[in-house]
Amino acid sequence: MSSIVSVHSLTKTYANGFQALKGVDLEIRQGEILALLGPNGAGKTTLISIICGLSMPSSGQVLVGGHDVVSQFRKTRRLIGLVPQELTTDQFETVWNTVSFSRGLHGEKSNPALIERILKDLSLWEKRDNKLRELSGGMKRRVLIAKALAHEPRVLFLDEPTAGVDVELRRGMWTAIDRLRETGVTVILTTHYIEEAEEMADRIGVIRAGELLLVEEKKALMDKLGRKQLRLELKAPLAVLPQSLGALGVSLTPDGRQLVHEYGNGAGDGRIGQVLATVEAEGIAFTDLSTRQSSLEDIFVSLVGARA
Fold first, then answer.
1. Same domain, yes or no, for 212 and 256?
2. Which of 56, 80, 130, 245 suits 32 as a labelling partner, its CA being 20 to 30 A distant?
3. Dihedral (CA of 242, 243, 244, 249) sign
4. pLDDT at 267 over 60
5. What pLDDT sits at residue 150?
6. In this structure, are 65 and 146 located in the same domain?
7. How distant, in Å, are the alpha carbons of 11, 41, 47, 102 from that of 55?
8. CATH number for the domain including 7?
């Protein structure tokens, strides 16, 4: 799959000496949803701002659709839609006029049919004549997405798009974003709701302290870094863990009431049957068996924590 955004050796150092980005390399594929995860101050917004032409890099190059974001700013900006974190809208303007005006700002001809479709897709059609000050915070965020889509961009950046949005509105917004992906629009999002990234993204990028730690297919990342756990609730507590189980990587909880076997990362996957057979051979009775697989949030916390 071809890249729509290419980032090469990108750095950003501010006048006070703070280095926000440290040699970032990134290829974003046409038509994918890429989730960019990282703690506050990691460099997510700085990276997005440079790609969108809102901030100048200290060194390196960014191409959007094959065009340089610095020397060919007008061409790249027309390819990009940006939904910022802040609710920056004219509170006394109507929804319809706000979205239509945004299309004109990018040099596109009036297209009422397109604006109507965008507003309907984002469940804003009934609010088209309302002034923005009359809308809830969640509805205002939808208006920001509508503005970003008004000029038909090929790349859409969503910087914390669902912050402060209730669960119902959030799910509605993601349904609309998923439809956009089906039309070939590339979506890059930053979010603190890691379950959203786990549900929606094709690939996951993790950034910390200005460094891009990894970019992986979501499934490959879960398979490679995820952990699984087998837990047995014992009928009677054990005083000592049998040596045969310890050799298989099984541990005993401090109260002696549970046996725990962790596996994953390609290690121990084939031992579950052996563990259960050994438990039976040792004459250990258990009342319940449960398994758990680590989430994307677990993996994210371990990655960021390991490099803290």
1. no
2. 56
3. positive
4. no
5. 92
6. yes
7. 12, 16, 9, 20
8. 3.40.50.300
Q: 136 and 232 share a domain?
A: no
Instruction: Give the CA count within 13 Å in the CB-facing half-sphere of 167.
Output: 1
Q: Which amino acid is at 84?
A: P
**Residue where a domain stops, chosen among 222, 251, 267:** 222
Query: Structural domain of residue 281, as residue ranges?
Result: 226-293
SS3 302: helix
Last residue of a domain, one of 179, 204, 222: 222
Predicted TM-score of the model (pTM): 0.73
Give the type of residue at 41. Answer: G
- The C-alpha atoms of residue 57 and residue 48 are separated, in whole angstroms, by 11
Q: Does the structure show a pLDDT above 80 at 298? A: no
Residue 294 pLDDT grade (very low, low, confident, very high; cuts 50, 70, 90): low
SS3 content of the chain, % helix, strand, coil (to 5): 35, 30, 35
Q: Report d(CA 58, CA 9) in Å as an integer.
A: 10
Give how far Cα 17 sits from Cα of 20, 56, 58, 70, Å. Answer: 9, 15, 12, 22
Statement: residue 155 has pLDDT above 60: yes
User: Inter-axis angle of helices 95-105 and 137-149, to 10 degrees?
Assistant: 30
Given a contact cutoff of 8 angstroms between Cβ atoms, the answer to whether 2 and 30 are in contact is yes
Residue 25: pLDDT above 50?
Answer: yes
CA-atom Rg of the chain in angstroms: 25
Question: Could you give the CA distance from residue 150 to residue 144 in angstroms, rounded to a whole number?
Answer: 10
**Cβ-defined contacts of 84-90 (< 8 Å, 24+):** 84/144, 84/159, 85/45, 85/159, 85/160, 85/163, 87/137, 87/140, 87/141, 87/144, 88/144, 89/132, 89/140, 89/143, 89/144, 89/147, 90/132
238 and 287 co-located in one domain:
yes
Same domain, 104 and 169: yes
